[in-house]
Amino acid sequence: MFLTIAHRGDPLVHRENTLPSLLSAVGKGANTLEFDLRLTRDGRIVLLHDASLERLWGHPADVADLTLDQVRGLGGEDQVPTFEEVLDAFGDTTFLVDLKTDDVVEPAVALLRRHGDAFGRSIFVAARRGGREALARLRADAPDAAIGLDWTEERPPPRDLLDALRPQYFGPRWKVADAAGVPAMRERGYHVWVGPLDDEAEVVAAMEYGVDGIVVDDISSLLRLRADAGTP
After folding, report:
1. What is the pLDDT of residues 146-160, one digit of tens each?
2. Integer Cα distance of 172 and 151 in angstroms
3. pLDDT of 78 strictly over 90
4. How many angstroms separate the first and last alpha carbons of the chain?
5. What are the distances in angstroms from CA 127 to CA 36, 37, 57, 97, 225?
6. How far apart are CA 65 and CA 42, in angstroms?
7. Quick one: which of 28, 95, 157, 224 is 20 to 30 A from 2 by CA?
C-alpha cells in the first residue's frame, strides 16, 4: 500500500493535530495519519507538536506543566485531543506516531496494545534530538514495533544505527533522498517515505523517483496527483 500520509491531519483546513483535522484528512482519502504525542502533567497522552501551547492557542505554558483539564479549558471542539480519543475515532487507519518526549513512549505503546489492532497499525518515529535513543529503547522493549527512521543527513544511515533500531521504514527529507541512498534502501527491503512536501512539482518528482509514501500538509493535492498519474 502506498502511504498517503496526512501531516498532522488536514492543517490547511483545521488546526493541526486536532480531531477535526484528522477526520478531515481521512474523509478526503488519506490512509495514514501523522501526529505528535506528549504527556500532560497528570500523565495523559495528548496530540501536540510543540512543547508550548503558544503557537496554536496563544498560551505560553508548556503542556507538560498543565493537567488535561487545564489544557481542555483552552477551546471547544477544536481542542487538544487525547490519544485515546484518536484511537477510538479511527479503527482501520495507519498511524505514523511521532514520539516527542521520552516519557510518552511507554504509555503510548501500552495504550495502543489495549486498543485491538491499533499497535499493529502504528509506525513509530522520533523526529527530534535524542529521538534515536528513544527508538532504540522502544525496539528493545517492543521487538514487534514498526519503526521509521527519520533522516535529514546527506549520507546513508550507518550500519550500526540500522542494526540498533532495525527499522522497517526510512523517512528522509526529499532534498537528501539521493545522498541518503533511497534506491539502495528500497532494494534492501526498507519502505521509504519522503516529506513533508508542500510543492506539487516535488510531489510528482517523488512519485516518479519511486517511494512508498509521501507526507504532505495538503492531502487533497496529493490524492489528486496520484489519481492524475493513474495510481491508487
Report:
1. 999 999 999 999 999
2. 4
3. no
4. 9
5. 10, 12, 23, 10, 27
6. 9
7. 157
pLDDT tens digits, one per residue of 82-124: 999 999 999 999 999 999 999 999 999 999 999 999 999 999 9
SS3 161: helix
Cα 156 to Cα 143: distance, rounded to the nearest angstrom: 24
Helix, strand, coil shares of the chain, percent, nearest 5, are 40, 20, 40
Q: What letter does residue 52 receive in the DSSP assignment?
A: B
Output the nine-digit C-alpha cell for 213: 509514501
Q: Over the stretch 175-217, which tens digit does the pLDDT of each residue have?
A: 999 999 999 999 999 999 999 999 999 999 999 999 999 999 9
- CA 44/CA 30 separation, integer angstroms: 27
40 contacts 51 by C-beta, under 8 angstroms: no
- Whether 214 contacts 207, CB under 8 Å: yes
Cα–Cα dist 230/217, whole Å: 21
Q: Are strands 45-47 and 32-39 parallel, antiparallel or unpaired?
A: antiparallel
Between the alpha carbon of residue 5 and those of residues 26, 111, 213, 219, the distances in Å are 10, 22, 7, 8
Cell numbers for 199, please give them: 510543492
CA distance 219 to 221: 5
**Residue with C-alpha cell 493537567?**
67
User: Is residue 27 within 8 Å of residue 16, measured between CB atoms?
Assistant: no
Q: Residue count of the chain, please give it.
A: 232
- Long-range contacts at 168-174 (CB < 8 A, ≥ 24 apart): 168/123, 169/123, 169/193, 171/125, 171/195, 171/215, 174/202, 174/205, 174/206
Per the listing, cell 509521501 goes with: 214
